[in-house]
Amino acid sequence: MDIDKLSTGTCAISRGLALVGDTWSALILRDAGRGMTQFDQFRVSLGIAPNILSRRLKSLTEAGVLERRRYSERPPRDEYVLTNAGVDFLPILAAIGEWGRTHNGDGVLGHIEDAHTGETVQAIVVDGRTGKRARPETWRVVMPMRQDDAGG
Amino acid sequence: MDIDKLSTGTCAISRGLALVGDTWSALILRDAGRGMTQFDQFRVSLGIAPNILSRRLKSLTEAGVLERRRYSERPPRDEYVLTNAGVDFLPILAAIGEWGRTHNGDGVLGHIEDAHTGETVQAIVVDGRTGKRARPETWRVVMPMRQDDAGG
Question: Which end of chain A is more exposed for a tag (fewer CB within 10 A), N or C?
Fold first, then answer.
């Protein structure tokens, strides 16, 4: 996967996936969304090898989805917090969760609640113009003319 | 990434990512969503190595997101079409597109139109209970008790 090509093509979906198109990266953002900030928190939560975690944190930081902050000088320790772009991605993860619940949801799964009301959040994708559920059957994808586009 | 573990944990997001947690897989679904069905169509669109494409088509088929159909006996030829689960994932891809447009959107990008009205579709994630934009700042993730959960 040529991330640079993905990130310069004319397809908006590719542009999004270029920033966070990887299962580990998505799960790191999920955990950041529930308050984790430290390397060891992610490592334990995900059961991920440290070198893979380092690489993903670096690429998410470079992509502008996480911000790296030094929270201790002695010993030197960094934490990773969601940027605005990262926070903006959480609803998409929640929508992936609803889709996973529907299509791969055997057993008891977690859910998201509104912290104020305690009500269960159900993340769905709508067309912002109409407020109605997105209906891909009626969609047509319109791409600008360009030859050097990686899958766009 | 242990897909089996991802697919049996208690996190709904993991359940979704287990079915389609890979950039190539997401782009294959995108292309299937704009009418592509044949191996060579995906291969040319994505510039993907044939062996990688074969593997991804196989795993998407096993995940129940694509269905493999024989459309010619001589020579033997299969095509891949979206299942209901696959169609259900397209709005999420569109939401990833809107996010990519917002946070990685330099230059001219494609968009999605309503085929009937020609209006631009803007895929956003809302809370289905309220119809309002999802606001992750107010969320609390509630996970069932379980010890053997991969990142859940």
Answer: N
Identify the three-state secondary structure at position B15.
Answer: helix
Q: Is ipTM over 0.85?
A: yes
Per the prediction, chain A carries an average pLDDT of 89
What is the Cα–Cα distance from A20 to A110, expressed in whole angstroms?
A: 23
**Count of CA atoms in the C-beta half-sphere (13 A) of A84:** 3
DSSP state of A34: T
For position B127, what pLDDT does the model report? 94
* Range of lowest pLDDT (A47-61, A135-149, B90-104): A135-149
Contact assignment for A15 to B142 by CB distance below 8 Å = no
What is the band of B97 on the pLDDT scale with cuts at 50, 70, 90?
A: very high
Q: State whether the Cα torsion A21-B37-B113-A7 is positive or negative.
A: positive
Cβ–Cβ below 8 Å for A138 and B101 = no
Chain B residues whose CB is inside 8 A of the A17 CB are: 23, 26-27, 96, 100
DSSP conformation class of B88: H
pLDDT at A5: 74
DSSP result, B16-69: HHHHH-BHHHHHHHHHHHTT--SHHHHHHHHT--HHHHHHHHHHHHHTTSEEEE
Cβ contact (<8 Å) for A129 and B121? yes
Q: With helix as H, strand as E and coil as C, how does B94-138 read?
A: HHHHHHHHHHCCCCCCCEEEECCCCCECCEEEEECCCCCECCHHH
Contact call for residues B149 and B11 (beta carbons, < 8 A): yes
